[in-house]
Amino acid sequence: MSIRRILIANRGEIAVRIIRTCRILGIETVLAASEADRDSLPARLADRTICIGPAQPSASYLKVETMVQAALGVGADAIHPGYGFLSERPELARLCEQQGVIFIGPTAAQIEAVGDKLRARAEAEAVAVPVVPGGAADSLDAALALAEVIGMPLLVKAVGGGGGRGMKRVDSLAQLPAMLDMAASEAGAAFGDARVYLERYVTRGRHVEVQILGDGRQNVIHLGERDCSVQRRYQKLLEEAPAPDLPDTLRGGLHAAATRLGRRLGYRGAGTVEFLVDRQREMFYFLEVNARIQVEHPVTEALTGVDLVAEQISIAEGSGLRLRQADIRPSGWALECRVNAEDPTREFSPSPGLLGEVCWPGGAGVRVDTHIAAGMRLSPYYDSLMAKIIIHAADRPAAISRMRQAIADTRIDGVATNLAFHAALLADAEFQAGGVDTGYVARLLERTHG
Amino acid sequence: MTLTSKDVAEITRLLEESTFTELQLEVDGLKISLRRGAAGPPGPPATAAPAAPPTVPTAAPASADQHRHEVSAPLLGTFYRAPKPGAAPFVEVGSPVTEDSIVGIIEVMKLMNAVRAGARGTVVEILGRDGTLVEYGETLLRITRAS
User: Do B78 and A414 touch (CB under 8 A)?
Assistant: First the structure.
């Protein structure tokens, strides 16, 4: 069935991103906006905006029933959930299924299967995708016994979670009971599921993820990998593709593992399979599946020329995969910097406020995905992501050089930003050498500020 | 093209909702200059404004008289004026209401939420149409407060 009108159940830059593709496809857009977002850039770009509730996400963007009612009320055929908010809530996908509204994403059952991290691990193991040594920690005794096997340091993680919340590092057996309790209560508060599990902490690991597309009928292709190792406290700051300094055997192994898992799940839509790459052991381990479009998807779009949102919509319409694996021909190098309203000199604390002048970089190979404009107020209710600057160039040195110029050409007045951090990062010799691990940003900050 | 007083009222409203402090408009030789707050020199540039959260526009606009009370939708959903199809509406224009009087219901996925008058007085206008989608904050009806 062809989709004529989409309700966008999100805000910010991803709402703008979805609207842009819908305009190209001739699909009408209705933005479901909170009161604080009535005059936002996506609200101005959408064909129609309806107010779904007050600024607090719990009373607007997180209300499953309201979103579906809004879609029915405006005559939308489909809901695009973007990322965050309701994107990985099986309740929304299920209610859509019941009400005959197309959910642009995986099935409710698939979201549930990958949302439960222990189940996702089991699915990975079933198709011989290696997982980090670890397992369930149902009781303290079981956790202590398992911890002896895994060894130190290890991570306590939330079964129902992701994004670093409910995650605790444990360096000795003595710390384990307290960390288990803390992680469990954090997980319960954040995800409504207090179950936790243990995993070995790979000290020098790299975060590499593979973009997949599936039609829900066992056809799954991959669009290459992205390296997201430049992160601070599990929050990604810069992403790139392809992953630098990665042997072809490892790269090929990651792609094959991701598609194998996608096929096992009968995955429908766009998804990401996250891996931890251990360069010391030349191994990789499955981490989790993100059942949504991701913040860093433009990196893959730049490299492959594929509009991932358009593919999501096409798959949701039921027309299957339009692309075969052979159609995916990545070329050159892509980088993305996340420009956040946060102050690196004050522990990266969010910096909402009224924006003054805003200027973006431009030119060949430069893309800016943003929702901000001069004179706009950045609400304290939402995340601090203002824009993503994406560069596509022939090779990595060229991409880094162009990104440095793009960052220098960017001006955002009125709020603190992490632009200076990006400038320092791109100028750093270790980053330029390529292949940094997830502990790199902490070390860089210590070197430059400490 | 000519500007009516209604257009000017609409432009004023847009300025009120924006973050700008000043607006100048020229249409067919007619020039309008609107400035936020008291008369005098233009205020400080927008960047220097205090970082207060935007005001919630569910309350009656400042220009409306104090006797007027607007009932706005407490949530998005389908508005119904009657408890069930075919039944008499909760209120009509001219109906007396108290703060707790139910004036309509909003359905969200089969869940019925009562909308209450919130003021004592008389219904003077009903804007919410029966069986249609209403947005959060949309004005459903107007009440003149009893003095």
Answer: no
Residue B96: give its domain's CATH number: 2.40.50.100
B20 touches chain A (CB under 8 A): yes
Mention the CATH class of domain A5-104: alpha beta
Give per-residue pLDDT as tens, A390-430. 999 999 999 999 999 999 999 999 999 999 999 999 999 99
- C-alpha distance from A83 to closest chain B C-alpha (Å): 22
- The domain at A205-449 falls in which architecture? 2-Layer Sandwich (3.30)
- B100 in contact with A, Cβ within 8 Å: no
Three-state secondary structure string covering chain B: CCCCHHHHHHHHHHHHHCCCCEEEEEECCEEEEEECCCCCCCCCCHHHCCCCCCCCCCCCCCCCCCCEEEEECCCCEEEECCCCCCCCCCCCCCCEECCCCEEEEEEECCEEEEEECCCCEEEEEECCCCCEEECCCCEEEEEEECC
**What's the pTM?**
0.86
Give which of A7, A34, A35 to mutate to test B binding, by max B Cβ within 10 Å. A35
Please indicate if any CB of chain A lies within 8 Å of the CB of B52: no
